[in-house]
Amino acid sequence: MTEPRFEPGARIRVKADFPETRGPCHIRTPHYLRGREGAVERPLGAFPNPEDLAFARPAARIPLYHVRFDQPSLWNEGQAGDTVLVELYEHWLEPAA
Known about the structure:
Elements: E1 11-14, E2 37-48, H1 50-53, E3 61-70, H2 71-75, E4 83-89, E5 93-95
Antiparallel strand pairs: 1-2, 1-5, 2-3, 3-4
Pfam family, one: NHase_beta_C
Domain Nitrile hydratase beta subunit: 2-95
InterPro entries: CN_hydtase_beta_dom_C, Elect_transpt_acc-like_dom_sf
């Protein structure tokens, strides 16, 4: 099993990448999170990459995380303390500056 790169509490940024503009792909990372910062809640284990499985390609096991984001910063609505919890694969995450 692939060891997770990020520990609980780590500040991360979702990569601002749009592979769908380069050709057919299957993306599990919501557009509204790309380029946004959040915090790792916990690693969930390593799973075959669904972006490869969708095209019947060999799929490496990649760590998956629960990542928490402040809701008001995503949609300009909600109250302080409102959050959104999302499952994201490690290859979409980078350390926040």
